[in-house]
Design a protein that fits this description.
Layout lengths: L10 E4 L7 E4 L1 H5 L1 H15 L6 E5 L2 H12 L3 E5 L9 E8 L2 E8 L8 E9 L3 H12 L3 E11 L4 H8 L3 E8 L1
Parallel strand pairs: 3-4, 3-7, 7-8, 8-9
Antiparallel strand pairs: 1-2, 5-6
Helix pairs in contact: 2-3
Length: about 180
């Protein structure tokens, strides 16, 4: 894990969005020039030299990180979006949520055989979104090399969800037990 004190710039919001939940607000971290730079630098440093050709992120905060990481790795960026947001032919993947299902899509020409992909997001909770992104990448014939995030909510067991799907590394800057 990184040496920067990310947690000092992450604000806990109790009882949001509902009573008993402590929301972890990363926007102050991203709003801090040094904090944001360190997030991108630490993620890039971890993957530099791995042959990454594409970085994929799910909307919306993931786009902020994934596009910056892609730029620094000299890789392309792939946006995984909610249904109806992409104008061309898409691959679709549904995934389970605590309260139902959701779906992500990518353009069919966004990835292909030979692409080496990392999935980057702000937060990994249950791992469902990350697995859905990996499944989309693999539908397109790409190879997923790993997952990176600012914060991992370990108490929700995202590593187990990822391990059930594939044997790829999860690199987290902050782990909340």
């Amino acid at each position: 894990m990184a040496s920067f004190d990310y947690e000092s710039l992450i604000v806990d919001i109790p009882d949001y969005p509902e009573p008993g939940v402590v929301f972890k607000d990363i926007m102050p971290l991203l709003g801090d020039a040094q904090g944001f730079a360190n997030v991108i630098d630490d993620l890039v440093d971890h993957y530099v030299g791995a042959g990454i050709t594409k970085v994929m992120s799910a909307e919306a905060r993931g786009f902020l990180l994934g596009s910056a990481v892609a730029y620094r790795l000299n890789a392309g960026f792939v946006a995984a979006r909610k249904p109806g947001k992409l104008p061309r032919e898409v691959y679709s993947q549904t995934y389970a949520l605590e309260y139902g299902e959701d779906e992500l899509q990518i353009h069919k020409d966004a990835l292909g055989p030979g692409d080496k992909v990392i999935i980057v997001d702000d937060l990994l909770a249950t791992g469902g979104t990350a697995v859905a992104c990996a499944q989309l990448a693999e539908q397109a014939g790409a190879e997923v090399l790993g997952f990176g995030c600012i914060m991992e909510l370990a108490f929700l067991h995202p590593r187990e969800a990822l391990a059930e799907y594939c044997d790829r590394e999860l690199y987290s800057l902050v782990v909340v037990e």
